[in-house]
Design a protein that fits this description.
By secondary structure, the chain is an alpha+beta fold. The chain contains 5 helices and 5 strands; from the N terminus they run αααβαββββα. The longest helix has 21 residues. It starts with 9 loop residues before the first helix and ends with a helix.
Length: 150
């Protein structure tokens, strides 16, 4: 058999091939689309807005888990609710607390805050107090409760 008449092998045809720009363009485009499909479907890729939403949700969960043991919610009997609120306002305003009267009395410091509001139907004061750590929360809770109880 004559060697010049034999058909070229695959290796020879591959070496001799010169793809056009169109073929190269569509090949790269197809590879890019296939990569994105695999990445978003099985690779765990997310869009920027999804990542932002996930980060915000995790951040809120982390804050809630961190503050949960550092919040105090108490209901205390108080015969003269108005007078107790005034005493709290005077005491903590003198200590530099930022006072708000939106719902009862709220006092804000840099590392802790509390809100005391009266019940409309019972002689009770509701205390909600939060601090940056559990020890500080317990100390401040006891301090505010002592003032309410006396």
């Amino acid at each position: 058999m004559d060697q010049s008449k034999r058909p070229p092998t695959f290796k020879e045809r591959w070496a001799a091939s010169r793809p056009t720009k169109t073929v190269v363009f569509w090949s790269w485009l197809g590879i890019g689309i296939l990569t994105m499909i695999v990445g978003f479907t099985w690779g765990g890729w997310v869009t920027g807005s999804t990542a932002r939403a996930m980060a915000e949700a995790r951040g809120e969960d982390a804050v809630a888990k961190r503050l949960a043991p550092m919040c105090a919610l108490r209901f205390e009997n108080a015969a003269d609710k108005g007078q107790k609120l005034q005493e709290l306002k005077e005491r903590y305003a003198a200590l530099g607390g930022r006072i708000s009267h939106l719902d009862g009395i709220s006092v804000d410091f840099d590392d802790w805050h509390f809100n005391v509001r009266p019940s409309n139907t019972e002689p009770l004061l509701r205390l909600n107090l939060e601090a940056l750590d559990e020890g500080a929360m317990e100390h401040r809770r006891d301090e505010v409760l002592d003032l309410i109880r006396t």
